[in-house]
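As the next step, I needed to go through one protein, both as residues and as discrete backbone shape codes, included below for the reader:
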Amino acid sequence: MIVCEDLGKRYREKVIVEGLEFRVEEAELVVLIGASGSGKTTTLKMINRLIEPTDGRVFIDGEDTSGLVPHELRRRIGYGAQRAGLFPHLDLAHNIGITPKLLGWSRGRIDERVDRLLERVGLEPAAYRRRSPQTLSGGEQQRVSLARALAAEPRVLLLDEPFGALDPVSRDELQQALLEIVREDGLTVVFVTHDMSEALLLADRIAVLEAGRIAQLGMPAELLSAPATEGVRSFLRAPRRQASRLASLLEDGAAT
């Protein structure tokens, strides 16, 4: 569904991303992870041309995106970020329905889609559709942001650290909601995070970026069993330590 060929981005002499080659199969969830400045968000934004590549090409479902009108391309791709970015002057129903409206959907179809999506992200439509973004908690705003990214029935979804600022309970609930929606709808997803635990829980495959290049791309079990670089190994230390500590606590609890 997504193919990146020799993808690169430079700002004058500064190289941000260089020579990226990867593909995302239909209905696959691929996580991009790396330290700050590794190029993961730049890579994500080059897929929908929020950032124009300096080199290389991106194909969506076999179509070269460089030949498409940027705003028309972006209306076909769902996009969500860590900061929900909801329009403060619009209620939630209009926030979610803005892209379908631009695409010329009927009012009835938009209303039906808004209510369905609010339900899918765990918000009661009757209680939420007329509320303003300022009245929501951070977790609720991210739920609405996810609903908006899904509003126009995209086949491709790009998510840039969408749950990074949430408390653990809200984060877990939204992760589970996302996985359920992805599986039900067969969505192709590229998900950026700096949290390896989140990557291991969500991804079909993980791409670890180092200095604008892919250091390793593989299934979670492959990274855990054979990290390719010290950088990949360092990303895995925290989830390994946390899992070991949790296993120890559970063992102690069972013993008592």
Summary: The chain has a mean pLDDT of 93.
